[in-house]
Amino acid sequence: MSTAIVEPALPEPEGNYLENGYSLRSWLTTTDHKRIAILYAVTITAFFFMGGTAATLMRLELISPTPLIMGAETYNKLFTAHGVIMVWFFLIPSIPATLGNFLIPMMVGAKDVALPRVNLLSWYIFVLGGMFVIVTLIAGGIDTGWTFYVPLSTRYSGTQVVYGVVGIFIAGFSSILTGLNFIVTVHRLRAPGLTWFKLPLFVWAIYATSIILVLATPVLAMTLVLLAMQRVFGLGIFDALLGGDPILFQHMFWFYSHPAVYIMVLPAMGVASEVISCFARKPVFGYRTMAYAIAAIAAFGFMVWGHHLFVAGQSLYASLVFSFLSYVVAIPSAIKVFNWTATLYKGSITFEAPMLYALGFVGLFLIGGLTGLYLASLALDANLSDTYFVVAHFHYIMVGGSVMAYFAGIHFWWPKITGRMYPESWSRLAAIVIFIGFNLTFFPQFILGLEGMPRRYFEYAPQFQFLNILSSAGASILAAGYALPVLYLTWSIRHGPHVGRNPWGAKGLEWQTRSPPPVENFDVPPRIPERPYDYDPEAEEAKRK
Amino acid sequence: MSVNADLAGRRANDSESEVGLWVFLASEVMFFGLLFYGYTITRMAHPQAFAIASAHTDVLLGSLNALVIFTSSLTVALAARSLRLGAQRASFWLLAVTLTLGVLFLAIKCYEYYGDIDKHLVPWGDFALHGPLAGGERMFFFMYFVMTGAHAIHLTVGLGLLAFMLAGVGRGAYTQKNTEAVELTALYWAVVDTVWIFLYPILYLVHRS
Amino acid sequence: MALPNSAAPVSYPLVSLPVAATPYAEKVEGLFWAVTGVCTLVTLGIAVAMTYFCFRYRSGAEVDRTLPDLAAGKSRSRRIEATWIAVPFAFFLIFFAWGAKLYYVYDDPPDNALQIFVTAKQWMWKVEHADGRREINELHVPVDQPVKLVMTSQDVIHDFYVPAFREKRDILPGRYTVLWFEPTLAGVYPLRCDEFCGTGHSMMTGRVYVMSREAYSRWLASGSQAPSLARLGFDRFRELGCSGCHGPSSRIHAPSLAGVYGQMVPLSDGSFVRFDDGYIRDSILQPARQIAAGYSNDMPPFAGRVSEQDLLELTAYVRSLANTSPNVPQGNHLQ
Fold it and tell me: Does domain B3-208 have CATH number 3.55.40.20?
């Protein structure tokens, strides 16, 4: 049974942000961070289902080792679309632009972000970038892979590379502006008395993510400019025929794309800390260590990009350095997993949907992270690089990790955002179905990688078929699992029971205000607690008796 | 006015936008940094080709532009300072001079590009330089056009900002009590100038090192 | 000609790992199992801890939830945290060092390695043995003999991946990359392109045949009577005019190519470079970039005048001069 406190709707003194204008125009010209968060949420959900459709079609095809429902070109376009959409148009914006936008101002006790109009602009830029990508897909797609390695993407691909790259370039500005906004907000708009070490870890996580957004995304932007110039004009500094260096592109690309994975995972870690401490009714174990670990991950994340180039022709000495640093960056992540586990110790634990997703996050992130240790090793990576082992590794982190945490956050803050509670039984069912489906989809892929199945293979050796069928079966279960929240969350907007300010009994400034919050977030200035996560499990137990 | 009063005025105007602009400037460092990195790696692999190709740039026009933009950086800094000190008219005219110098920079740049095209230095298509090092020479000019082009785009945005500031100072929207926008514009212009300080030697002076 | 049976891969239900066909591959397997052992323990440990805590401390369970008081609790947590930072770090150092050492030790091919050229193109493998024998999508090598592949691409980036050897290396256009191995287990092993190279990427597969000594000699003998790569290279060397300057009777001051392969040679700017396949290739295409010490920039560049095939043959010829002396009439050492 959920312990959520569901109160009947009381007559409220003023309106809330959802009632502040019902027209489409009021939404499209809003500068309210909460509405912008919802605009982003709707947009990225659409992209999620586009990317997911591509994946579904791929997994259907992979049931057979020989062509089944499509040709090689279509398959290559599908995995490119899947990667481009999921990375840039779902994962990178997901938690920061939706939950981050909604919550950061409230968590620091402010009325809005520092630059509200820039915030709206960032959404429009995002949509514009997305439009380019959709046009590209309609115009026949791209078949280079989301990594655009040269000279395949500059000289040998006949597809709409430039349009796609322009779309990603544009969307990058959305990332930069979002990151910039959060940095300024956290620096300048904290309520009096709210020092850094009283901030929730979610704020730390979004702040660190914002630093990466601001520093890494420009590198991608210019890399794509150089790529596009070379493609359009037929020559450039990556061109081996001129004496240029194709590996230079890889260095530039991964200098952004490795920190990008930390953009995708740090916010998830922030959500996990919020949810686990709430449903264990216990302060996060080792708060300061957790905060420092977030900073360490962001910093070291910039120093490991060469581990994507171990077999690419990079010098042995550079590879040694990158291998070592890749192990170093794993340490703060390991610390976080241990600390989340320790948070459960002597807590008072309940298992609502957010908690199920958060616990799932910890387990799946653990497996994903541990398999990263194989790839950080030079000798093991030379075998496993570019095989399904890598595919499984990053899906464990990005889907088992980030997407699960995103769902945890959506469910946890749903009552705050909408003022309604979602149906608990359906949500738990979905969490379990997603967990099972996910593992069935991706665990066999570790084995496929060890068996020597390369990634991006449209046809494969017959002995790989059984595990591919298992993986595709898992994907269908996963797809069903993802469909459920769409249905019941939408249902709950109209029909879910109304909730009061704090249905979960959670700490954090956002829970002091109404659900849904007023336009300016707080009717009265929030009360700053002595310490973050001021939970008391013993008191909670006593209360529940 | 004393230095202390000057500083006090600045601290009072310290704001979110300033933090924002420093963060934005950090991202600009990364934008251009990537291009400098690409240039450096390519030049290390093709030192002679870069030296020879660089000799074909118009060092006269490049140096003239350097002079123009360094001067404009001085005038915009003075414009911001004048505004802080209350000298509204001086600020207005200094901004006007900066804007003019900025436009002059672009004009010289356009003239220079015209010349480059005329001399067939555009690496795509009919390229003037032949011989064994032509590959590296083409790559030099590839970076030349990409980097000066990126700089010119940033400079044009700066011109827009300057025009806006000029209008604002002119009609009294920005005054001694409200210097923030002008200060931030000056800061942005300083960055555009700094990028040129690095671009100029690596593009025009390679053969003279 | 009967080929040896494929060595049976290690099979478990659902899992069929490729055999480890080289001593290096076996060592990599050893590291793999060690890492797997530790990771499994950690995963189980965390899973058990989480499950146990969730069960024991579930809401409604009557257990002691008193946390130690603030001061004692802080120092205890610090010690716990220090432990679970130090222990993983120690393991990571071991994993790093083990993998790095293995990779480092096996980085340089031995001097007696059999050199074979591989040209990758969309979407096939072209293999050329030193004796001129060519193969498409197949590579025959003898067992217990180090083999060094010198590889280049005619178009995009490819990757030569043999799971049984636990190795792969990207193949780049405009450059040579090297992969070496010494298979000790005869068999037939899959070769797969492992860097996405376009439409036919998944079809770019082949086979590596590791043959016993007798089988290999029979295979060699039954091969085509094509001239060796070095012989073809010698013909090209004369046709292109290289012997005009580099031959022993030349009066042009040009560096001798005999007896220098594999050595460190001085350059005019004071640095040293190894006289290997990559250097030979670069010197033919753009000689001005690395001029030998004591010589001037007189060699014309051959970029645009030689094909990849010419380059392979010329390289093979110069390599064949490794143990000859400058004054011997060139070509005598070739069959």
Answer: no
